[in-house]
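Continuing from the previous page...

OK, I double-checked the sequence for PCI domain-containing protein against my notes and this is the correct one:
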Amino acid sequence: MSGDKSRLNGSSSNGVNGSGSSQNNTKDSKGSKDKDGDDEMTVVVPPSKGSNKPTAPTKATEADVANGADEADAANAKEIPVDPKEKAITDIKANLPLLERAVSQFDPRFSLRVLRSIPSVRKQLTADVLASVITETYPIPTATAISLLSAVKDDPSFPRDKVGDWHSKKDAPPTKTAQKDVLPEVDVYLSILVQVHLYDKKSINAGSQFSGALVEHLRTLNRRTLDSLSARVYFYYALFFEESAPLPPSPSAAVISIRKNLLDALRTATLRKDQDIQAAVTTLLLRNYLLTSHITQADLLISHTKFPTAAANNQYARYLYYLGRIRAIQLRYTEAHEHLTGASRKSPTSYKASGFYQASTKLLIVVELLMGDIPDRAVFRQPSLEKSLQPYLQLVLAVSSGDVSGFQNLVQKYNSTFRKDDTYTLILRLRQNVIRTGIRMMSLSYARISLRDMCLRLGLDSEESAEYIVAKAIRDGVIEASLDHERGYMKSKEVGDVYATREPGDVFHERIQACLALHDESVKAMRFPMNQHRLELKNAQEARERERELAKEIVEGELDEDDGPGGDFDGL
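Thanks. Re-ran it with the corrected sequence; updated structure tokens here:
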């Protein structure tokens, strides 16, 4: 039957191709070989579509159905939307085991990972999400859970029915299985989320009350695993009071009322060697003093405290920025330039976190102008600074050209912008620098120029004031010239080669110092496995003990001669 079937398949295929059986008998030997080849191929090759139609389509249909089912499942999985609320709850609950690991392993990196995840859940943070997380974290109502829910109960999205059912569990009889105690780190983490929610909703009064009670509670705890979390609590605590009425720089501003608590926290953190809280509170105190223009008190704080060297990079950048502002107000421009340069180098330059970078760069530009230097043009071409630095670019052009009238018009035009950036008072000092720049340009352009012409070009009141300004510029080394008081003119000296002076070497030395300081800070910031040296000592001690046992066995004769070279002896 198989042979008949093969012949039927061959005849049918030949018939389809247009050749009959009689024609196959009259073919030559070459044709017979081709026929034999075709007969053999009909056995090996799968049947054609015309001979066996049901078989091939059936297999193809099964494959298509399987592939179609997989594609449909994948399409359905892609089409299913993810609920933002459920995702936020899942993300928050996933951070709780990390806090437990931070406590059990005494590793602050897990706590820092939890804090870095706050911006990702901040947009979906609502009272409903917080209530769901709190009721699931605390199966039985406690004082901490009730205080957390009370802080967000005025929100319209607060689930009152669900919380009411949760409150009813308080009077229920206790179960046989004892509930696991919630760690204080979890309490503080959920409190930080409540602070973030209240600040985003602009509930300043409720946030300041909740933060004040939370700070009082933190003072009763002494756990090193709470350091990084407590530092974030103090940050929002100060932020709420900065926006509470009356606002600074009023002498009765609300920020003044929290100075005592911040100073107490700084003293306690210093005694406990808590570097996270110490760094955070120091920067908050400096910011507090600057908001009310108490520069003397801020300077005393800097002189009587030492900023921790192992502080986080963001805290150190803030400290350098506030220190640079204080030194600039105190006319110590060289130190201010050094601090602000370090702050701008440590600040993030991405679009999402470019606010601090813009503030530090603006102040750095003003300080450079006060020092008599002109900032590099490439600073104003950075994508994250190009738009915000437009007023300062025009300011630099006015100062570099020595245009006094243009400078005054520019200050009046961008008065509100400069006041908002807290650089207005420093920019007003630049008028003398604009006059000096104009005098320097005239000393380079003219071999001799009268004081009267200088008054007309610089817009000065009298020749006496022009003479005083020129004499001061000569004394400060701004220009190389001499004054003729009797004839009333300024005579310029020939300008020498700048590369023959110490100026290029000093600039090169400053750059080398900056690179070396960056290298030292990078080495200090490196992390190494904890107690790794103890493991190495333990392994070395075990190796010495094995060596003593092996030597003892050799001496006592327990090992044969054949056993000596092999085994553990080779490893020694």
